[in-house]
Write a structure and sequence with these properties.
Layout: E1 2-9, H1 15-29, E2 35-42, E3 49-56, H2 59-66, H3 70-79, E4 89-92
Antiparallel strand pairs: 1-3, 1-4, 2-3
Helix pairs in contact: 1-3
């Protein structure tokens, strides 16, 4: 399993519009092969900053499958114009802490 992490800095006066658009975009990403689940959290200290965590079966499910799909173009059209600056997306492999 791979965990995708992105901090989404949304233009402050467009937060409500972003949340509505994300509600539509969620159905796009959740229909992709290898998608497991996502969590979107809103910041307390900076309420225009969101933490997006997405679980994928494999890295390529995100980097190739999703990003090269027609659904990704819809995702971009719905969401990418809200970000300032554009987010950095990183991927993590969870550790079994009981085995450390």
């Amino acid at each position: 399993m791979i965990l995708e992490h992105a901090l989404l800095s949304v233009t402050p006066d467009r937060v409500a519009e972003f949340e509505s658009a994300f509600g539509q975009a969620e159905s796009i990403i959740s229909s992709m092969p290898g998608f497991r689940r996502l969590q979107l959290s809103r910041g307390h200290e900076r309420p225009n900053v969101y933490l997006l965590l997405v679980e994928w079966d494999e890295l390529e499910d995100h980097t190739e499958g999703f990003r090269q799909s027609s659904g990704y173009q819809q995702w971009k059209d719905l969401l990418h114009h809200f970000y300032d600056p554009f987010p950095v997306v990183e991927h993590y492999t969870p550790l079994d802490v009981s085995a450390l």
